[in-house]
Design brief:
The chain is an alpha/beta fold. The chain folds into 2 domains: about 1-180, Rossmann fold (3-Layer(aba) Sandwich), CATH 3.40.50; about 195-315, Rossmann fold (3-Layer(aba) Sandwich), CATH 3.40.50.1980. It has helices at about 1-15, 20-25, 40-50, 75-80, 95-100, 145-165, 170-195, 210-215, 235-250, 260-270, 285-290, 295-315; strands at about 35, 55-60, 85-90, 110, 200-205, 220, 250-255, 275. The strands form 2 sheets. The protein has a 4-stranded parallel β-sheet with strand order 2-1-3-4, with helices on both faces. A 4-stranded parallel β-sheet has the order 6-5-7-8, with helices on both faces. Strand 7, helix 10 (about 260-270) and strand 8 (about 275) form a beta-alpha-beta unit. Helix 3 (about 40-50) crosses helix 6, helix 6 (about 145-165) packs antiparallel against helix 7 (about 170-195) and helix 7 (about 170-195) packs parallel to helix 12 (about 295-315).
């Protein structure tokens, strides 16, 4: 029955997305270990643990989009079915992935949400809950935004790779240890920065930085929760954000990499502030990857952005 479900799903993908058929003809990697990741952060962590020039391990990022808008291609389904290790977030947004996995028995998986202590999604930034009648607990899924959590996830990936490929366990252990040292240095720099400046962060966008904020004791205000599908905040939210910006002397309104960013730019224009990107490392374009973007480089970019924002506030 599961095999039949996979065949049906494959047929639907083939019929519904003829434009991707040419890409499906590309041969799969002949590396001995195949790791497939749905999320950029997991993909990048796995590449670091395996070694970016390690021909023994192939690390592939799915083309179907992030967990909020996953639209699997035929190749995505084949990659998941045939890989040795599949890395994904594992939250409620991954229902499409769960459907695929149900049709692919025996796939070895690692869920990022199983690697860290989870935090409940916050709905107290003066924005309305989109599903006010909902009573069950909702957990924030953006677990990788904290360097502390990134270290925990990297160590779990190292354990999974070492179990799959014990002959090269020491290589994976050394790679993971070196990468965790770099993540610890990043964490120290963020801690030093926030120790010298406690200004709240204002997001005219969704808020995927809950784990980051909790790690450093930050106060944050946002137009929408992390997994919101809304495109316009309520008037109450807008007025509250403007009041916070003016009261706290905020000089920068932040937005994230996906979406139109229009709310952040309108808030910045209304308050005479700047709008700037804080990258959540969730949705990374092929162009960014081709240019060499990594979790570390994007988080270092965030660090520099925050330094400039806090410096501007201090000069007021």
């Amino acid at each position: 029955m599961k095999r039949l479900l996979l065949l049906v799903l494959t047929a639907v993908l083939l019929l519904g997305a003829p434009a991707v058929l040419s890409s499906c003809a590309a041969p799969l990697s002949d590396a001995e270990i195949s790791v497939v990741a749905m999320n950029f952060a997991a993909y990048d962590f796995a590449a670091e643990v395996a070694g970016r020039n390690n021909a023994r391990v192939s690390v592939e990022l799915l083309a179907g989009g992030d967990s909020h808008s996953f639209n699997p291609t035929f190749r995505d389904v084949a990659s998941i079915q045939n890989c040795d290790l599949f890395l994904y977030v594992g939250g409620e947004s991954d229902s499409a992935v769960d459907t695929i996995l149900a049709s692919c028995p025996g796939v070895n998986t690692l869920r990022m949400i199983d690697c860290v202590p989870l935090l409940e999604e916050e709905h107290d930034h003066d924005h309305a809950h989109e599903e006010e009648g909902k009573s069950e607990t909702e957990y924030d899924e953006h677990v990788w935004t904290s360097p502390e959590n990134a270290i925990l996830i990297v160590n779990r990936i190292e354990e999974a790779l070492s179990e799959l490929d014990p002959a090269f366990r020491e290589t994976y252990r050394k790679n993971a240890a070196a990468y965790c040292e770099a993540l610890e240095a990043l964490d120290r720099d963020f801690r030093a920065l926030f120790a010298s400046c406690r200004q709240p962060l204002v997001f005219g966008d969704r808020f995927p930085f809950l784990y980051f904020a909790k790690s450093y004791g930050l106060t944050c205000y946002a137009a929408f929760p992390g997994c919101s599908s809304a495109s316009e905040p309520t008037p109450k939210v807008v007025l509250s954000l403007i009041d916070t910006i003016e009261r706290e002397g905020v000089t920068t309104v932040f937005y994230i990499e996906s979406g139109t960013h229009s709310v952040a730019f309108r808030l910045a224009e209304e308050t005479g502030t700047e709008a700037a990107l804080l990258h959540s490392c969730h949705k990374v374009s092929p162009e960014e990857i081709e240019a060499g973007a990594t979790y570390l480089s994007l988080m270092r970019q965030n660090y520099e952005t925050l330094v400039r924002a806090f410096s501007a506030a201090a000069e007021q």
